[in-house]
């Protein structure tokens, strides 16, 4: 199994295109295709904040659902957009407003198509992916070793939001424990959710959310080679959105 696992895209379609080209994918057919049979995988948070969320959704839907030729797991922003498309009462904030604005500019017919497409993508995806004979897990915000194989509400909260404490940081974001520092599993966990300036490898975990939508870069981890590829973001740099860790 040869994968190129892509970090949080957040509507940065051009960077997704540029990164896949850098990885050797051709877009001649309108979708990224690798001549060596490599597949793309996505850690979630396809949408929100960036300029072209619906184009990203279209690409991932066609790859993962129509062609069954890519792996996708949902992120917390995906979950919120899914609930919006179901007609639930969600707050149009924290980036969702950009996706909703794109959606609102479409015709009613196009809206119905996008709504169904995203719901199908979301509903067809597992909470997290166990791949390569349990050597690899792709989970949006990560997963504890003792949670692997479980999909309880507690596990769902962890996978979508991280190891939240219930408290909030001064900027209003949820306070999260550094779960990767305590991870002791043999299975590699590749995740995103928490923007870091450089990919963070610790204890068989890899955080590849390098804050593309905040002016960082879009990063891919090549598996099983564990090689990194990235492209710079076209978005303004917002330094306070990146987290630094004290390794112990």
From TrEMBL:
Q: What is its EC number?
A: 3.6.1.17
One Pfam family matching this protein: Metallophos
| A Gene Ontology cellular-component term | cytoplasm
Q: Which domain of life is it from?
A: Bacteria
Keyword terms: GTP-binding, Hydrolase, Nickel, Nucleotide-binding
Cofactor(s) recorded in Swiss-Prot or TrEMBL? Ni(2+)
Recorded catalytic reaction(s): these are:
P(1),P(4)-bis(5'-guanosyl) tetraphosphate + H2O = GMP + GTP + 2 H(+)
Pinpoint the Calcineurin-like phosphoesterase domain residues.
1-196
GO molecular function per UniProt:
bis(5'-nucleosyl)-tetraphosphatase (asymmetrical) activity; GTP binding; nickel cation binding; phosphatase activity
- Ranges that cross the membrane: none
Question: InterPro entries per the record?
Answer: Ap4A_hydrolase, Bis(5'-nucleosyl)-tetraP_PrpE, Calcineurin-like_PHP, Metallo-depent_PP-like, MPP_PrpE-like, Ser/Thr-sp_prot-phosphatase
Q: What does this protein do?
A: Asymmetrically hydrolyzes Ap4p to yield AMP and ATP.
- Protein family according to the UniProt entry: Belongs to the PrpE family.
Q: What is this protein called?
A: Bis(5'-nucleosyl)-tetraphosphatase PrpE [asymmetrical]
Q: Which organism is it from?
A: Peribacillus saganii
Taxonomy of the source species: Bacteria, Bacillati, Bacillota, Bacilli, Bacillales
